[in-house]
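User: I've been trying to design a sequence by hand for this structure and keep getting stuck. Would you show me what you'd pick, starting by listing the structure so we're on the same page?

Assistant: Good idea, let's start from the same input. This is the structure you sent:
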């Protein structure tokens, strides 16, 4: 195969529901949402999640943005995690995720099955302002890039997440390696504890 091949052209569309589609290409999964080829999640990002989240998830966890569920599976595999609630805005994304089989993933996501995973069709921002529950760890991953368009939303999410975090808990946001220099410091400052 030449390196010019792309997932939606040369890969296989394995699951579809409404506006969400999952392709398999070179054994990796790709999630598109909406019109055109709007790529929202890649299975290969597991290495970023492992690097960024490391051993930080613990206790009662909350995650904003299901995507392919790769980060969810990583969080659930962390030894100190008791449960995970994942909020996903788009019901089609939840539907395609539920249609995936363990064998569809290239990576071995054999997780501790006794851990609780609750997936809710909800807007993360609204949920966090309405819930009375407190969490030990919140992971925010509901954006595709970190720039002038997305930073206001990310800032709103972080403020809401800080309102549901326990005093010794931690809020983490997915860091996009392609973030332009000018936005990196602003992004990390959002997560600093007061
Ligand atoms: C980058 S993907 C998440 C990738 C995911 N971490 C994974 O492991 O594949 C972002 C997801 O967030 C969802 N999303 C966007 N805005 C949201 C919101 N306000 N509340 C909840 N989910 C949201 C999108 O529909 C999409 O499924």
């Amino acid at each position: 195969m030449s390196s010019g091949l792309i997932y939606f052209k040369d890969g296989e569309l394995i699951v579809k529901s409404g506006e969400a589609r999952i392709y398999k290409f070179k054994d990796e999964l790709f999630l598109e949402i909406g019109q055109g080829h709007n790529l929202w999640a890649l299975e290969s990002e597991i290495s970023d999640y492992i690097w960024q989240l490391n051993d930080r998830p613990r206790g009662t966890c909350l995650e904003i943005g299901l995507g392919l569920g790769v980060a969810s599976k990583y969080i659930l595999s962390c030894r100190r995690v008791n449960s995970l609630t994942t909020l996903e805005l788009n019901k089609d994304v939840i539907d395609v995720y539920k249609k995936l089989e363990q064998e569809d993933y290239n990576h071995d996501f054999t997780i501790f099955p006794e851990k609780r995973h609750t997936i809710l069709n909800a807007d993360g921002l609204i949920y966090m302002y309405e819930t009375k529950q407190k969490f030990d760890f919140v992971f925010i991953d509901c954006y595709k890039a970190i720039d002038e368009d997305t930073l206001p939303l990310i800032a709103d999410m972080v403020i809401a997440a800080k309102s549901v975090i326990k005093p010794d808990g931690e809020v983490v946001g997915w860091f996009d390696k392609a973030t332009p220099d000018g936005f990196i410091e602003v992004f990390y400052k959002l997560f600093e504890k007061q």
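That's my pick for every position. To get oriented when you compare it with your attempt: The chain has one domain: 43-190. Helices lie at 7-10, 46-53, 70-77, 91-99, 124-130, 151-164, 181-190.
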